[in-house]
Design a protein that fits this description.
- This protein is mainly alpha-helical and about 100 residues long.
- The chain is about 60% helix and about 5% strand.
- A two-stranded antiparallel ribbon has the order 1-2.
- Helix 2 packs across helix 3 and helix 3 crosses helix 4.
- The N and C termini lie far apart (about 50 Å).
Length: about 100
């Protein structure tokens, strides 16, 4: 039986169907693949593991930002791996000061 896999691009198309913002390759790699993005390798997660990535995001969101929406707005647009990791380490503490 063939395993169904979901790429970052396909994931973004699903998000658009639900009227949600798209995510960067870095976001997808961190939360769903749990590794740095490799520009030469396709980014795809087994469909059965999709819920694990969502739980991972929700855990980081609550611990670092206090809510899902604020975390999603900030993290989903991070296109630099180091910036994404730094933001996750800082969480909401520094985000509020910038506003």
């Amino acid at each position: 039986m063939t395993e169904i896999r979901l790429s970052c691009e396909e994931f973004n198309e699903l998000l658009l169907l639900f009227n949600q913002r798209r995510v960067t390759r870095e976001f997808f790699s961190f939360f769903f693949l749990q590794r740095e993005p490799d520009t030469h390798a396709p980014l795809a997660v087994p469909f059965a593991n999709l819920a694990d990535g969502i739980r991972r995001f929700r855990g980081f969101a609550m611990l670092r930002f206090g809510n899902f929406r604020f975390a999603y707005r900030n993290l989903s647009k991070k296109s630099d791996w180091k910036d994404l990791i730094d933001t996750l380490k800082r969480g909401q503490r520094t985000q509020k000061r910038r506003s």
